[in-house]
What does this fold into?
Amino acid sequence: MSRRDPSRAPSLWGVPNTPDTDAPAQASDQGRAPVAMTAPPAPERAPEPPAAPAETDPAEEEVPVKVGPGLGERLGGWARASFVPPQIWSEDRPSLSKQLAYAREGLWGPKTGWHRTAAQAAFWGVSFPTSAAAYAIEWVGERPSRWVVALVLISLAYQLPYVPETVAVLIRIPAWPITATWSLLGLSA
It folds into this structure.
């Protein structure tokens, strides 16, 4: 609520007080006989009050505080970094030593504690065997001459006793996270 200056308030008289008119009647004089008056001149417009200086709050003049990204932006960034596959056409995959260094010293969590121990266990149990197998398959698949040599060696090796069983075990080692998940979900035959 603003405070008004009473000296700037409009007159409480019914008609403005001008030199050519009699004294105007107040609200209490309405019961009396009217006094002959000439037509009152048009009322004059009151002068506009000067604009009061705007009060400024010192807190409003401060630089606004920069707020970081919201929860949605943070979750979106994490989901993109975690679940969008790499650009295999234009980017190389990290080496196994870089993956181990990331598990040991990456900026993703605290420097010590059970988080680091779990990350290193996950590297040695899941990432290392699957990445090593994938890199070996990728290396064989790079050149047709390697395909031919690999197919000849595999077909010759399968003729030896116990090799098919050994190969089946070796194939399951890098794929154990997938087969363990299938077993837990009841998807294995």
Remarks:
- The CA atoms of residues 153 and 159 lie 10 Å apart.
- The two ends are 79 Å apart (CA to CA).
